[in-house]
Design brief:
Shape: elongated
Distance between the termini: 78 Å
CATH class of the domain at 57-152: Alpha Beta
Radius of gyration: 27 Å
Largest sheet: 5 strands, mixed
Helix content: 10-25%
Oligomer: single chain
Number of strands: 7
Strand content: 25-35%
Number of helices: 3
CATH architecture of the domain at 57-152: 2-Layer Sandwich
Structural class: alpha/beta
Order of helices and strands: HEEEEHEHEE
Strand order of the largest sheet: 4-3-2-5-6
Length: 157
């Protein structure tokens, strides 16, 4: 007597719910991700061997370009009242300065957060006199604590 094989029933898996969840997650991540805001002007940083990490928040960025333009930049988290609810948002403050007014500009930004670290991003082609005047102006305004950003030099193998 021959054994009868059971007929196999094909299974159909509906992929629609999985695709819906995948797109919902994608939309959620796109809506909640905070991208790095673009810089006002691109600068080519000088190189050094320093490996100190910069803080991710509470920093005032001063950008000095080769054409002696100076920009102040500060981001802070604030809560705004939107439709009766306090919603956390990020507010960005931009200021333009000259080598003679950079100290006043930074003090204006520092009025929002006294513990903010001042960081100078100067292009490697900036004139020495411009950087000297920027630093002198900052010292005159009692801003003697600041850091200058550089790129890490690649080691030769």
């Amino acid at each position: 007597m021959a054994i009868k094989k059971k007929r196999r029933i094909s299974i159909r898996i509906d992929m629609t719910p999985m695709v819906d969840i995948a797109f919902l997650l994608l939309i959620f991540y796109m809506a909640t991700t905070q991208f790095k805001p673009p810089e006002q002007k691109a600068v080519s940083l000088p190189s050094s061997h320093s490996q100190i990490e910069l803080p991710s928040k509470d920093k005032i960025s001063v950008t000095v370009t080769p054409d002696d333009s100076i920009f102040g930049d500060y981001m802070e988290k604030v809560e705004k009242d939107i439709n009766g609810r306090m919603v956390p948002t990020i507010e960005r403050v931009y200021m333009e300065a000259t080598p003679y007014t950079v100290g006043k500009v930074i003090n204006g930004i520092r009025a929002r957060n006294l513990s903010a670290l001042v960081i100078i991003k100067a292009d490697k082609d900036v004139k020495f006199g411009t950087m000297q005047r920027v630093m002198d102006t900052m010292v005159e305004e009692n801003l003697s604590r600041f850091q200058i950003i550089t790129e890490l030099e690649a080691e030769a193998i």
